[in-house]
Amino acid sequence: MPLAADKIMFEIYREADYDRLYRVVYFTELDEHNKEKEIARAMAGEHVYDGFLAERGKETGKQVLQKLIDRMNAGEELEPERIEQELAKLEVLPD
Question: Cα 76 to the chain's mean position, in Å?
Fold first, then answer.
């Protein structure tokens, strides 16, 4: 079983404000300067999907997540199951 340090915890959410854009926040990469603000933004928004990326595949995973966010912001509706499928096929999820 991977250690907590071997995983990147993230959440995809939709902003609560006027733009209603989809965003992703990587909780385990926040520092003291942005932690409270980013968590508050995510909590105020609409939860879409959360999970973990394996540390070994985090760059690929982040690229995939950004592409999914871009697709959703362009109007495509992606269900949580589809998001998980996209991440799983690239093997960026922890074992």
Answer: 17
* Average pLDDT for the chain: 88
Q: What span, in angstroms and rounded, lies between the C-alpha atoms of 61 and 52? A: 9
Residues 6+ apart with CB under 8 A from 72: 22, 48, 78
Per residue in 3-36, pLDDT (tens digit) is: 556 889 999 999 988 889 999 999 989 999 889 9
Choice between 54 and 11, residue whose per-residue pLDDT is larger: 11
Whether 37 and 23 have beta carbons less than 8 Å apart is answered as no
Q: Provide the angle, in degrees to the nearest 10, between the axes of the packed helices 80-89 and 58-73.
A: 150
Instruction: Name the residue among 76, 51, 47, 48 with its Cα closest to residue 62.
Output: 51
Cβ within 8 Å of residue 64, ≥6 positions away: 86, 87, 90, 92
C-alpha 89/C-alpha 21 separation (Å) is: 26
